[in-house]
Amino acid sequence: xxxxxxxxxxxxxxxxxxxxxxxxxxxxxxxxxxxxxxxxxxxxxxxxxxxxxxxxxxxxxxxxxxxxxxxxxxxxxxxxxxxxxxxxxxxxxxxxxxxxxxxxxxxxxxxxxxxxxxxxxxxxxxxxxxxxxxxxxxxxxxxxxxxxxxxxxxxxxxxxxxxxxxxxxxxxxxxxxxxxxxxxxxxxxxxxxxxxxxxxxxxxxxxxxxxxxxxxxxxxxxxxxxxxxxxxxxxxxxxxxxxxxxxxxxxxxxxxxxxxxxxxxxxxxxxxxxxxxxxxxxxxxxxxxxxxxxxxxxxxxxxxxxxxxxxxxxxxxxxxxxxxxxxxxxxxxxxxxxxxxxxxxxxxxxxxxxxxxxxxxxxxxxxxxxxxxxxxxxxxxxxxxxxxxxxxxxxxxxxxxxxxxxxxxxxxxxxxxxxxxxxxxxxxxxxxxxxxxxxxxxxxxxxxxxxxxxxxxxxxxxxxxxxxxxxxxxxxxxxxxxxxxxxxxxxxxxxxxxxxxxxxxxxxxxxxxxxxxxxxxxxxxxxxxxxxxxxxxxxxxxxxxxxxxxxxxxxxxxxxxxxxxxxxxxxxxxxxxxxxxxxxxxxxxxxxxxxxxxxxxxxxxxxxxxxxxxxxxxxxxxxxxxxxxxxxxxxxxxxxxxxxxxxxxxxxxxxxxxx
Length: 659
Prior knowledge:
5-stranded antiparallel sheet
């Protein structure tokens, strides 16, 4: 039994609302254009209740506070006409599910694909996503992650201005459309994750504060006052959020939640709300017999989010790891503004790959304090990494993607770093084929003054940038339209080659044991001039995992990534070399003395013609008697001849172009 929202049975509807700030609450109900005001009975704790027969599915209703304010239900399941209009009943049990045998996706197999429903297709609906699921499955994605779908103002928004946490955005297709999408995902063997926001509500249509103490002004978030998880009256608020978690997992068969900005969730209770959210996930996983994952976004590099309860942790499945993104982005683009000032050195990327966090108890110049705590003891699959996501693209002035600033070989290089890493990868919609349309920040508040405030705020944020005059107005429809994917990778284009590179690397993650699940990893940064004198024993040293031989300012060197278990010999390892420079690099003694006697061979190169690369003819990398040449920004993967059969099928199926 839930406490918030209407309880629907075969013959009755029990209406219930928590409104301790109101002296009187009436149910203002409309059935087939006939309105009726029904007084509700006040119960202990500020609850109001009433019941009536279940007469029709076409029911709209408000709660009338103190006889003069009609407000939507704080726990509304459906707002068919928008945030300010009446709530509607939703009957989740009417949907016929076809996923009885669905067991979910284990964490070690997750490949997340973040998408915004409104711009993923021209139609901008849940139903329009369904025809593209087969291509995502062919790509190698195992889970799609929807940006927030809770009802927000207007029809154009990122989703973080939601004000009805239980109601599914009407312009996307409402709750019925979401059910159809989840069901279709499971039929395609894909999990579905929802991005949910429990740290704040949006500024327009946020009526919860009129009902009860849903917010706590002791704490401030970047978006206003925080949700009340630990002050007076917090009990029903906590229950409100926990019921919301259970609602998505149970009524919509969602496979996981991404908790937005948990560093802005403030709770000093004996049991933190994040731990209780995880406990709900664990209980539903046992009850439903399928994998369920709760993943947090945090900027604090706090391993307690992942630690088990007996280690004073919250036990969440995974956490977003921005350190990896920032390390890759700064090295690829040269940008050092804002939080990027903390990054830009090649050894930081090596540290991220070895130790999970770069800032794990180190001083951060950007934050002006010690940041993070050590997390190297945790498996790589506990960390979700990306080279692009909605924040890192959309929070730029113009929402420009990497494909507008990097060459195709650099895009393949960055993808190789992510997909050959031990982490859980997250792709942002379109990156797999080099989408060049932007993903700018957009919204469509019904209050014009809010639109103006947001636009002025965006212009002030980027006032010092040379393109500040070009910041697109967030409320303009053309800003939204500019973000709709082209969804095109014509045959023989670099777009098709890039997508094939993603597809092949994702196959490799599934089929090569050394790249699958939680395996050992060693990353080193080598200066090119020292390769010939580096003892192989030093290169193979696992403890410490990283031994920085050199790191020149012009990035004139190589990354070496070893995946697998070194104690089991060469056959148990995959070695990838990354030429992180604008010059050719040469594998000499580092490769020949260590690997050639074991019969090691190149099995993947980002510069093969099938990936749109620069190697001519057969596509094999250039080799002399003693060296292998790596082109600028080439990724070259080696394994032993004994391991070759396990990856022989990576390139068997030729992908289909999309125009």
